[in-house]
């Protein structure tokens, strides 16, 4: 499984969307209460979104489950988790795609987002 994570990182490095950074730690599943996220969006448990303490809103992050090698790309739209030792909160849909409920060990690969033109 670690080999798959390293292979994914290597493949991303060869692409134009190479990783900006990578980190490993514990992921958890959001407990939704139906409100808005810190970015102002309505919370949607079926979307592939996530909460991270410091990454900018809109950042694409590939999350790799270290236990089974499954991966999914999510968009950061909220802040958290605020529990020591956890690095990302995932929606139930993203967690399901990764094959877990509760907690799991993951590697996060932050993608370079295409620049937005603002005038």
- Distance from N terminus to C terminus (CA atoms, Å) equals 45 Å
Range of strand content: 35-45%
Give the CATH H-level superfamily.
Answer: RlpA-like domain
Total number of distinct structural domains: 1
Low-confidence stretches: 114-119
> In terms of structural class, how would the helical and strand content be classed?
alpha/beta
Mean pLDDT comes to 84
Question: Number of DSSP strands?
Answer: 6
Helix content: 10-25%
Please, what is the oligomeric state?
A: single chain
- Cα Rg: 14 Å
Query: In CATH's first tier, which class applies?
Result: Mainly Beta
| Shape type | globular
Q: Count of DSSP helices?
A: 2
- N-to-C order of helices and strands: HEEEEEHE
CATH topology (fold) name: Barwin-like endoglucanases
* CATH architecture tag: Beta Barrel
**What summary fits the major beta sheet?**
6 strands, mixed, barrel
How are the strands ordered across the major sheet? 1-5-2-4-3-6
């Amino acid at each position: 499984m670690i080999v798959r994570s390293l292979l994914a990182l290597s493949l991303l490095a060869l692409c134009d969307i190479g990783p900006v950074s990578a980190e490993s730690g514990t992921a958890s599943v959001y407990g939704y209460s139906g409100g808005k996220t810190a970015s102002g969006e309505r919370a949607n448990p079926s979307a592939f979104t996530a909460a991270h303490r410091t990454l900018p809103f809109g950042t694409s992050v590939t999350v790799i489950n270290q236990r089974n090698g499954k991966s999914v790309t999510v968009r950061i739209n909220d802040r958290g988790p605020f529990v020591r030792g956890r690095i990302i909160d995932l929606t139930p849909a993203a967690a399901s795609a990764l094959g877990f409920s509760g907690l799991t060990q993951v590697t996060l690969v932050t993608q370079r987002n295409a620049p937005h033109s603002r005038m």
